[in-house]
Amino acid sequence: xxxxxxxxxxxxxxxxISNEQLETFxxxxxxxxxxxxxxxxxRISETENTSDLCAKAAQHILxxxxxxxxxxxxxxxxxxxxxxxxxxxxxxVQDKIGAHSIMSFDVNAACSGFVYxxxxxxxxMQSGSYRYGLVLGGEVMSKIVDWSDRSTAVLxxxxxxxxxxxxxxxxxxxLGEDIxxxxxRGHALTAGTLSLSEKWSSQEAEYQYPLQMEGRSIFDFAIxxxxxxxxxxxxxxxxxxxxxxxxxxxxxNERILxxxxxxxxxxxxxxxxxxxxYGNTSAASIPILLHELxxxxxxxxxxxxxxxxxxxxxxxxxxxMLIQL
Amino acid sequence: MTFSKIQEIIMxxxxxxxxxxxxxxxxxxxxxxxxxxxxxxxxxxxxxxDIKIESEEGLNTVQxxxxxxxxxxxxx
Lengths: 325, 76
What we know:
The complex is a heterodimer.
Chain A: E1 2-11, E2 16-18, H1 19-23, H2 30-37, E3 41-43, H3 50-65, E4 74-78, H4 89-97, E5 103-107, H5 113-126, E6 132-140, H6 150-153, E7 158-168, E8 174-181, E9 189-190, E10 212-213, H7 215-236, E11 244-249, H8 254-264, H9 275-278, H10 285-295, E12 306-313, E13 317-324
Parallel strand pairs in A: 4-5, 4-6, 11-12
Antiparallel strand pairs in A: 1-7, 2-3, 6-7, 8-13, 9-10, 12-13
Helix pairs in contact in A: 3-4, 7-8
Chain B: H1 2-14, H2 27-31, H3 35-49, H4 62-75
Helix pairs in contact in B: 1-3, 1-4
């Protein structure tokens, strides 16, 4: 009993915001942003919420795979920027794409969300109860960014992407995984505090909606935990780096990816990069990049090539998966 | 000893030659290092000496780092 990825797809909002446009209201510069992050522009949603981006990405995936929405057996959406606390983004997507009343739920593991969702989806597929499973990562980060904070506002963007899983004969596409969370360091990256009710609680309500990040703590975390996770994954699966076609890592910052490559003593070329166009799209970054590589024929579904997916972010959460295309 | 290890880390991170990394060398002015370069250097130094450097404030020159590391190592 096995599972394969049979389709990829993505959708990003139309509006492009360049670094120069940010210069008009933030004390920053194109040169500063580019040299420290690799970001040149990002997409910002003006009319579409997270479920809209996810539904469009889902339609793109289904059309690429030649599968209809009625055939999908479950939907998992990784997001930290849902339309509502309830209904879930996945429920909204189910309706928008015209799927049946199938199991639909969200996973919140911030920028590691797609890796978490794919890991969960793989276990669901292993049960043998489902034929097709849709796994999406989508964010409208512009909703939670503090647009007056130049240290974080320049980093994020909006978008969605995902994969369609199909139950097949043979092996599972997941060859190994190494997934973690450390809540003791969760305060280093927070967004959207919900306080207790003032009617019942004497605690002062904290209306702290914007995203806040301790830059150095997160940088430190990323360059220590991510290389460790990739190393554990490859050693547990007896996979040398030479067998890894490419590493599709969360696009947080190009400098972080280079630092991770340096720690791993591998060429930075092994890491696929598209952050210049989209910024950090949190849970959407891995599936958007994965689809781009597939669309450009740099990766071929069904080729049996091995790639590493690795996510890291709020929670703190991090995780890597070795998958076979 | 402390200096040579730190010098090696800085040379490796910033791709510089030995002559460019001396005790009086200033990270930002002489080596054009930015905050992320400094974070990476600090990260490697923490691992190398098994110490924690809570803040990069006041660490402007190689000498600053050598002094800090020697004081931390002496506390252990």
